[in-house]
Design a protein that fits this description.
Tetraspanin_CS; 11 helices; transmembrane helix; Cd81 Antigen, Extracellular Domain, Chain: A; mainly alpha; Tetraspanin; single chain; about 240 residues; elongated
């Protein structure tokens, strides 16, 4: 390519880099703002998005999740946009490094999710089952979360109805939660065994596997964008030496 064509290509990629990262920066700011809103005024969020959001908020703690993701996107967007605008090698390298770290973390998380599913189930069983025995039926918030989860996902406990053996709920009511018997009461051990409602971990895992194609496509798209962003930032970084 002629020097003019190279310069035109560099300018085009630089502008695309600025616009792309400006969009990321604005998205990060939006998520950060929503996260702060949910944290400060959760009642308004619940009124807009309904009762189910209450369970989601308490299980996932959406406010902190949105704040963290928003802050990360703000940093990435700023480094990419400002670094390209100012043609700063330092900022472009920082942008490349941050995106690379996120990419490696995502790959590691995917590998762990695929290879150590059994380990995750074992760890969750060790952590969640004692809580089900102690708090279900005794703690109103905890009970509400699990009732919504079991009703919506059509599951019972983490593994199955035996998670409620010797639990506070069973000792108090003399039965298992109705979700363990397809919403039939009283839910005794015989009916629960005949109904054989699967545990929530297995049901959620089944849903994930059922939608694995969609999840994989989204993950592949995000990975492709990250690789493209790293390639563009490195191209601009190297071209700056030639200017």
């Amino acid at each position: 390519l002629s020097p003019g064509a190279k310069m035109g290509c560099f300018t085009f990629i630089k502008v695309m880099m600025i616009l792309f990262n400006l969009a990321i920066f604005l998205s990060g700011g939006t998520l950060l703002g929503v996260g702060i809103w949910v944290k400060v005024d959760g009642e308004s969020f619940l009124n807009i998005f309904g009762a189910l959001s209450s369970s989601i908020l308490q299980v996932v703690n959406v406010s902190y999740l949105l704040i963290v993701i928003g802050a990360i996107l703000l940093v990435i967007g700023f480094l990419g946009c400002y670094g390209a605008q100012k043609e700063s090698k330092c900022l472009l390298m920082m942008f490349f490094s941050v995106v690379l770290i996120i990419f490696i973390a995502e790959v590691a998380a995917a590998v762990v999710a695929l290879v150590f599913t059994g380990l995750a189930e074992t760890l969750l069983t060790g952590l969640v089952t004692p809580l089900l025995k102690e708090k279900y039926g005794e703690d109103a918030t905890f009970t509400h979360i699990w009732n919504v989860t079991m009703t919506e996902v059509h599951c019972c406990g983490l593994n199955n109805y035996t998670d409620f053996n010797n639990s506070y709920f069973y000792e108090t009511h003399g039965s298992y939660p109705s979700q363990c018997c397809d919403m039939r009461d009283p839910c005794n051990s015989t009916l629960a065994a005949e109904t054989n409602v699967e545990g929530c971990f297995k049901q959620i895992l089944h849903e994930i596997k059922t939608n694995a194609g969609v999840a994989g496509g989204v993950a592949a798209g995000i990975a492709a964008l990250e690789i493209a962003a790293m390639a563009v930032s490195m191209y601009l970084y190297c071209r700056l030496d030639e200017k």
